[in-house]
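Researcher: Structure prediction, please.
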Amino acid sequence: MKLSNFEAFIEEVILDRGLDYFQNERVVNVKETADGYTVEVDGTDDYTVEILLGHEDEIVNSFCDCPYDWGPHCKHIAAALFAIREKAATPEKSKKKNSARKEDLQTVLQKLKKDELIGIILDLSKQYSDIQTTLLYKYSSDVDEISAAKKLIRDYINHAKRRAFVEWRDVGHAVQGAELTLENARTKAANGDTEAAVLLCIATLSIIVDMLQYCDDSSGIVGGAIEESIFLIDEAALISEEHLNADGQKRMFTAILKEALHSRYNGWEDWRFSLLKACTYFCSNPELHKILDKHLEKMQADVHDNSWSGRYAKENIKLLQLELIERVDGKEEAEKFINQNLHFSDFRKKAISNAFSNRDYSKVIQLCLDGEQIDKDYRGLVNEWKRNRYRAYEQLKDVENQRKLAYELLFEQDYSYFLKLKELYQPEEWSKVLEKMVKDFETSCQSSVYEQILIEEKLTSKLLEYCQRRPSYITDLYPHLTGEFSEEVDQLFKEYIEQSAAEASNRKKYYNVCRTIKTYKKACGKIKADGLIEALKQKYERRPAFLDELEKIK
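Model: Predicted structure follows.
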């Protein structure tokens, strides 16, 4: 849709409300950006609308930070579009309108006296308990910091709850207490108080991980706060040797371990493993090493099933044990442990990496071949082992095996191996290889890789046959065909457009047909496009929406 015709694409009730907002001067600011506009709309709250414009004022994308989620356009977006169109048509009038914008909050507050400001803050604190909690948390010096942080986090969550649940639109408000606490934790970590920073992060986690049970976090805001908490814990733990004595490190280790083992992380194992990894940083201390190792052994024993989740848990526990071995027992013991656990893919990757470092390419090949057999049901892993095996053949200059493996990987949709494969043949040999390759693609998996090969090798007759089997592909591939097969391209476009028009039944589909006609016009010229448009107008004279879209083609 464009600025000139957006009304045709927005629901009528939304459009009417947006027009009402616009006419009642609820659009308070329209600011032009490099690729569109940013618009402020005065609604239930102050909302910001972003409009991204493309060529000829086409509306490429639109966004509003209001909570409306029943469709792609809200009344604020509609109001913004009316305002942008007016601004584009009468820039001087819009300029005067924006100059009369209402004063912002900072300007208003700067005019008030200290007593008036204190009175306003106290009144607001009585109305909204989370404001009082926030101010006391940030500015009072006589508080138990952890208890105050927990109270702050809970107050914001409770204020956002409706019937014991936090809706999607309220999640941002609900986590503000957690965000304030994490901001405090970041400051403490930067000032060297890593222990306090970790305790604040753990206090945050102890509440907001549980919050996932009673909120809609489809926006990912709560998950983001959890990730930030764990990241700060990891950073603080990593540098603890610089800031903490042995007793402090033990306290921090114990606090992180206790949180990691809590039942709230059942079902959120990645977060548990991240916390346990932070514990490994303290394990140069033999006592702490023994404690963590004991817990990891118990966790390993407690995993009884052999499902995907069970194997995933076992592998992550083993990786943590490897971290301990690397930190305390050294490289030789670590390699021994890796080789004992090659049935886990991450351990096989480490073993392959070590073999490459040692230039033991025969070992790389064997590790990869074994992996391909063990992981035969996991296509992604099999291809990773094959790619590593190819690297080993390269180092060994084993051309025959390179050729064979590159051919296999090419049919796994990795085009990069086409060029590698071509370099392995002399020009006089390549034609036969290419002929076989094309036949194999035609009888198996014709795909974008096949398209690229036909284009690269200038096999235009094959490319035309490919498009004839899939007419819609002509819209992308015509530039490679128009010179040699202009008539065939014209015919393919017409057939595809006529078929699409016959199947279209609403404005969106009519719009898509017209987009294809615009491409046809670029490919085959204005005269032919105009002729097709006229033919469609006559054929579909009883489809006014289609006729309207056809009229817009320029």
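Model: The chain has five domains: 6-102, 124-341, 342-397, 398-457, 472-554.
Researcher: Thanks, that helps.
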